[in-house]
Every structure is written in structure tokens, then in C-alpha cells.
Design brief:
Elements (H helix, E strand, L loop, with lengths): L16 H4 L6 E2 L11 H11 L11 H15 L8 E4 L2 H12 L5 E4 L6 H8 L4 E3 L3 E5 L2 E5 L2 H7 L4 E7 L11 H13 L3 E5 L20 H5 L1 E5 L13 E4 L3 H13 L6 H13 L1 H25 L4 E3 L6 E5 L8 H7 L3 E2 L1 E2 L10 E5 L4 H18 L1
Parallel strand pairs: 1-13, 3-4, 3-7, 6-11, 7-8, 8-9
Antiparallel strand pairs: 2-10, 5-6, 9-10, 11-12, 12-15, 14-15
Helix pairs in contact: 2-10, 3-10, 4-5, 4-9, 11-13
The structure holds pyridoxal-5'-phosphate.
């Protein structure tokens, strides 16, 4: 079956934050949703659900929990009991729930920036001190690559540290952490008795040559101390349907997380529920085609930046549809504002991604080649105009 990733749909009038935040003359390459129609099976499932005109509260039904458990076994050889799966609304709810349920006042949280801003926000919401251990960047020619700072990570842990928050694959630097890196983190957490909150929302979006490994799958000891958060929403382009899942093997922690979730009124959305199940059951051909398209776009960004914007250093993402661009050598006060105002391209400013974000922007390449090339050309032209 052929899927069309080359013709952009007009999204005006759909209440899209990505398209409606800036003016109509701006090409939005920022917030992480893509320009593609969801798999046909998802639309069908929602249509079938619409045939019943009552949209009551949803129960945490065994069917979706079972599909998620099966997926973990098939893709990663990780045996998950469906009872460990807790269905939530958006995944950011999950980050907040874990901080609130698994830590107490005074407990500190280890975070490796630059990182998706809600990681920091979740800690701030409940006044948990953050211990930052920045990823280190190593340039390989024109490519920017980030790695764990193992020594700094080990040195940062104090008696107050209770939880390590992992983003794998990593937004915004696009790393898919290797088994050796995950084992290092796991060993450290075991040695210091830390819990792990692992956001694996981008785990289906991994390119040729790389393999996602859920950190919880490393061993029963790590599984017990980990909450894995995932969703079909990034993969199948439906974050507006707000449905995600937490896999919580530890019974006590799971009971606490469920209780807090009920207390906050976090309930799955009726359409998100059926859409997620349909995507996981029937979306693989669409996902295979999507990955080929995204990989092509990823390579186009790398080539374009190297040839037309050589003062910028770009990551070559191993996963995700996000590129992280180091614009510091351009000498701009605020590269996000420059590209927005001059090039009419909307990017994410690096600053909210925490330490190491200043002077960077994040570009979303989940769109047609046409839209991508147009945005990159507009950026390059404005840089050339300055020279
Ligand atoms: C790492 C990561 N976690 C969570 C989310 C958002 O999840 P949700 O929209 O389900 O709250 C994103 C969205 O970009 C993300 O990149």
C-alpha cells in the first residue's frame, strides 16, 4: 500500500497550535507534530467509535493494555504483564504523575539537558530540586553528536537524589542510547537505589542502523525500579487525541500512581483509546513508509546545512523527527527570533531546553520534502543576505 507523505494538507481551521500560533506567512517547523494524515486504520477506528453517540468515561480496558504488552514482547523481547500498564491521557501527565507519586519533598531529580522542557517543569511543579548533568557534545566534522557524561553523572548523585529522568530516544538531540550507555545508567541507579522515569515516546521513530532498547528490559532489578512512559501519539501523528501509557512493574508504585492519577482526574480520551489500539494493531505498513520518508528528510537536512549554512552544526538524529541546530557561530542574539522574523520559519528556541540550549534551535522535519526544502532555503537566504 502507498501512503502519501509528499502532499501537505491545509491545516488552517483545525485549531492547530503549530499552524495558528504564528502568522499565515510563517512556515511552522517547531512543535512536535507532523504534517501527515494518520494511518487509514486509525481514521476507521474513530469513525466506528463515532457510530455510538455516547462518549462516557473510559475504563482502563484490557484490550489496549494487552496490545501494549504484546508490542513490548515482540519488539524488544520484554515480557510485560498487561496488569502493569496504566492508560493515561497525554504523556506529560505521566511525567508529572511520576514526580508526584514517586518522590517526596526534598528528593532531588537527575536530568540530562538539553531536554524536552516539561521534564524540568514537572520537577518545578512539585518543587523537587533538579540536578543537571548535561550531555556532552562531540563534533564529528560538521555533525553534532551528544553523549552521556559518565563521570559527571556518577559524581552528581547525592544522598538526596531519588529519581533519574531519561528521555530515550532523546528529544532534542536525537540519540538512541546504546545498550552500553543504558547499562551504565542502570548500574548507577541500582548502586544508588534510584528510581528511573524513562520517557520512550519516540521509541518507534528509530532510523536504520539503530535499535531502541527499553531500559526496563535490561534486567528484573531495573524493571522493578523503572516507570516506562510511551504513546502512539508521536509515531502515528495524533497527539491531539491525548492517550499514553505508563508501564509500572512495581505493584506499590503502580497503586500509588493510579491513585494519584484518579485524584488528578487523568482519564483516557475515548477516541485516543481506540485510535491507539488501531495504530498499534494495524499501523505497521504506514510506519515503515513513514520511517523511510523521515530518514530521507533527515539526510536532506544534514546535507543542506553542511552545504548552504556551514556555520551551523546539526545533529544527525538516530531517531525522532527533530534536528538540533547549533547556531552559536552565527553571532545572533536570538537565532529563533531571527529565523522567525527574517526567514519566516518557526523553530523552537533552545533556551527552554535547559542548560546547553542557548544559541540553539530545534527543527521539526516531519513534513513533505517540499516544505522542508522551502523552510531551509528561506533560512539560508536570510543568512546569505547578512553576509
Ligand atoms: C520526549 C517527549 N515526551 C512527551 C511529549 C509530549 O507528550 P504528550 O503530548 O502526550 O503529553 C513529547 C512531545 O514532543 C516529547 O518529545
Amino acid at each position: 500500500m502507498n501512503f502519501d507523505f509528499e502532499h501537505d494538507l491545509d491545516r488552517h481551521g483545525t485549531n492547530s497550535i503549530k499552524w495558528d500560533l504564528y502568522g499565515e506567512d510563517v512556515l511552522p517547523m517547531w512543535v512536535a507534530d507532523m504534517e501527515f494524515a494518520v494511518p487509514p486504520a486509525v481514521t476507521e477506528a474513530i469513525r466506528r467509535r463515532l457510530d455510538h453517540p455516547i462518549f462516557g468515561y473510559q475504563i482502563d480496558a484490557p484490550s489496549l493494555r494487552g496490545v501494549i504488552a504484546e508490542r513490548m514482547a515482540q519488539r524488544y523481547g520484554w515480557e510485560v504483564d498487561p496488569d502493569w500498564v496504566v492508560i493515561l491521557s497525554g504523556l506529560v501527565n505521566g511525567l508529572n504523575l511520576v514526580i508526584y507519586s514517586a518522590t517526596a519533598s526534598g528528593d532531588a531529580v537527575l536530568i540530562m539537558p538539553p531536554i524536552y522542557p516539561p521534564f524540568m517543569r514537572a520537577c518545578q511543579n512539585f518543587e523537587r530540586p533538579i540536578q543537571y548533568v548535561s550531555l556532552v557534545s562531540v563534533s564529528d566534522g560538521h555533525i553534532l553528536r551528544y553523549e552521556l557524561d559518565r563521570e559527571a553523572l556518577a559524581a552528581a548523585i547525592t544522598p538526596q537524589t531519588r529519581l533519574l529522568m531519561l528521555c530515550n530516544p532523546h528529544n532534542p538531540v536525537g540519540r538512541v542510547f546504546t545498550r552500553a550507555e543504558l547499562e551504565f545508567i542502570a548500574e548507577l541507579c541500582e548502586r544508588h537505589d534510584l528510581l528511573i522515569c524513562s520517557d520512550e515516546i519516540h521509541s518507534d521513530l528509530v532510523f536504520t542502523g539503530y535499535r531502541h532498547i527499553p531500559i526496563a528490559s535490561l534486567s528484573p532489578e531495573i524493571e522493578r525500579r523503572t516507570v516506562t512512559l510511551l504513546a502512539a501519539s508521536k509515531t502515528f501523528n495524533m497527539p491531539g487525541l491525548v492517550c499514553s501509557a505508563a508501564i509500572v512493574p512495581d505493584e506499590k508504585l503502580r497503586a500509588r500512581l493510579k491513585d494519584v492519577s484518579h485524584g488528578f482526574g487523568i482519564l483516557p480520551n475515548a477516541f485516543g483509546y481506540v485510535a491507539t489500539e488501531a495504530a498499534y494493531r494495524e499501523g505497521q505498513p504506514w510506519l515503515d513508509a513513514l520511517l523511510a520518508h523521515l530518514e530521507k528528510n533527515r539526510d536532506s537536512v544534514v546535507d543542506f546545512v553542511e552545504t548552504r549554512m556551514p556555520q551551523i552544526f546539526a545533529t544527525r538524529p538516530e531517531g525522532t523527527y527533530l534536528t538540533w541546530l547549533d547556531c552559536r557561530a552565527l553571532g545572533l542574539e536570538n537565532p529563533q527570533r531571527f529565523f522567525l522574523e527574517q526567514a519566516k520559519v518557526g523553530l523552537n528556541d533552545g533556551v527552554p531546553f535547559g542548560p546547553g540550549g542557548q544559541g540553539f534551535v530545534r527543527l521539526n522535519f516531519g513534513c513533505s520534502q517540499d516544505m522542508l526544502m522551502k523552510a531551509l532555503s528561506q533560512m539560508a537566504e536570510q543568512l546569505e543576505n547578512r553576509e
